[in-house]
Amino acid sequence: MILAHTSVWIDYFRSSNSHFSDLLENDRIICHELVIGELACGNLKNRKEILRLLNNLRNIEPASFHETLYFIEENKLMGKGLGWVDVSLLASTIINDCILWTMDKRLSSAAKKLKVNYKYVQ
After folding, report:
1. Fold of the 2-113 domain
2. Is the pTM of this model over 0.70?
């Protein structure tokens, strides 16, 4: 299963990606409450419909506050330019045994080091 980061969703909403569409249609994309929350903070066309669809996707179990703090220390993620949401998504990815697709360079680099980065080649 592939957790799509906020950056992937934004790119998809701006210019539809057939690969991402295929993954969605084949039930390979999963979501996280923090991604939905970040998207909800933005200006979405068809806002109600998009938020409804996102909430209907399979959502992974979020890492708890303490799991995320432990994850930061255990993987030495402090000072890497990652925010709380990024690290929480990484921790959730590992806990739920899935991979992360992101277009964020720092997050992608951390995901690669943790061997949970989705490799999409256009």
Report:
1. Rossmann fold (3.40.50)
2. yes
